[in-house]
Amino acid sequence: MTPLVSRLSRLWAIMRKPRAAVGSGHRRQAASQEGRQKHAKSNSQAKPSACDAGLARQPEEVVLQASVSPYHLFRDVAEVTAFRRSLLSWYDQEKRDLPWRRRAEDEVDPDRRAYAVWVSEVMLQQTQVATVINYYTGWMQKWPTLQDLASASLEEVNQLWAGLGYYSRGRRLQEGARKVVEELGGHMPRTAETLQQLLPGVGRYTAGAIASIAFGQATGVVDGNVARVLCRVRAIGADPSSTLVSQRLWGLAQQLVDPARPGDFNQAAMELGATVCTPQRPLCSQCPVQSLCRARQRVEREQLLASRSLSGNPDVEECGLLAGLWEFPSVTWEPSEQLQRKALLQELQRWAGPLPATRLRHLGEVVHTFSHIKLTYQVYGLALEGQTPVTTVPAGARWLTQEEFHTAAVSTAMKKVFRVYQGQQPGTCKGSKRSQVSSPCSRKKSCMGQQVLDNFFRPHISTDASNLNSAAQ
């Protein structure tokens, strides 16, 4: 059991409260993904490596696509319609008054409207909204049209951009304006597909934002805020930056976007993530779609259970986003190591029966970042020498062999914990230099890759799993 059993070569894993939420800057995730996409396009003639070719033949992707649980999807048209209606109604009343929104609403000429949206989206990449406002206002006063920007010098562009950082954004924006003026007759491409194909520096997110806001194309968008909203609403616990999860989130965004008001809907989803469904301490009571949120439903369920056991109340940060994954037994941080050991031992005895306190030893520390939340795990181990663990486990818990652990639906954080345990065993050293792990193996070279989990879209498993499954039908 890890971290409990070593010589028996058994692992003890239980379903616990998930530990983190997904979040990022306003446009940070979208910007980084667009950069990768553009880089991939520029190298489209390169042959894939043998490793890439091998990965392409792996069956995990097919299995994942086929095994997505209805729990993580929207069940029917009525649910989608309710989501759209609630979100747009909230946006109409609560949206922030931002200069680029006013321009998009008031501008009659579609090319000038698209240009105004384009400038705002580029500036908002990697930059706070409050910082962008003055830069945007000054930019649009100096260069109100594509033609004005196309005729400006790069030096002028850099001078106005000074302080925003990532100067290549301004340069690509001007390059795009010149291309529109010189090669496209002064007319912006009208669809997300052609915007992405024809304009330098415009990736999937920016193209979708321009097409939906300026031209009314019913295309969904996913930035860091939208990804967080979708992950919480549908209790998706996997890494949203991974290719497979990203594809699923884009599919959800496309399913949800309102064809009658696509631009407003996309801005509403981003606004919800930026102001209500925030990375930390989300304002769930103010959320217009809380009745449709799987994470919120779980919070309420666990709060009810906690009120009965008087063990404290969870919040959405802990309950939303690793649903369906397994954890080792754990307790919250205590102010002293003595209290911490006592609390952990009590928790372990609740699941495994009487245990020798003298054998509980500290193995190391794991620091894991869930996009925006940095968590520290203190890892303890306890060897059951000659002692047979209980064979009957409580509901929501199970014994695993070491082999089963590597194929089970466990989080990256728990894999780091397991590597700390392995590093303390004779003849093993499996630390990863990508992991912030304090153990004897922490500075050794990392092992090959990480197996793709084919279960991270499974619904949350708990004592009321039957209720969850019936609700997902």
Describe the secondary-structure layout.
Layout: E1 10-14, H1 28-42, H2 50-56, H3 60-66, H4 77-94, H5 99-106, H6 110-124, H7 129-142, H8 146-150, H9 154-161, H10 168-183, H11 192-198, H12 204-215, H13 224-233, H14 243-256, H15 262-275, H16 294-309, H17 316-319, H18 337-352, E2 361-370, E3 373-381, E4 397-401, H19 402-407, H20 412-423, E5 436-438, H21 465-472
Antiparallel strand pairs: 1-4, 2-3, 2-5
Helix pairs in contact: 4-15, 5-6, 6-7, 6-12, 11-12, 12-15, 13-14, 13-15
Describe the global form. elongated
- The structure class reads mainly alpha
Count of individual beta strands: 5
Helicity, in percent? Answer: 40-55%
Could you report the average pLDDT, rounded to the nearest whole number?
Answer: 75
Sheet with most strands: strand arrangement: 3-2-5
Continuous helix count:
21
Low-confidence stretches: 1-26, 38-66, 427-473
Quaternary organization: single chain
Order of helices and strands: EHHHHHHHHHHHHHHHHHHEEEHHEH
What is the percentage of strand-forming residues? Answer: 5-15%
Overall radius of gyration: 25 Å
The biggest sheet amounts to: 3 strands, antiparallel
The CA-CA distance between the termini, in Å, is: 36 Å
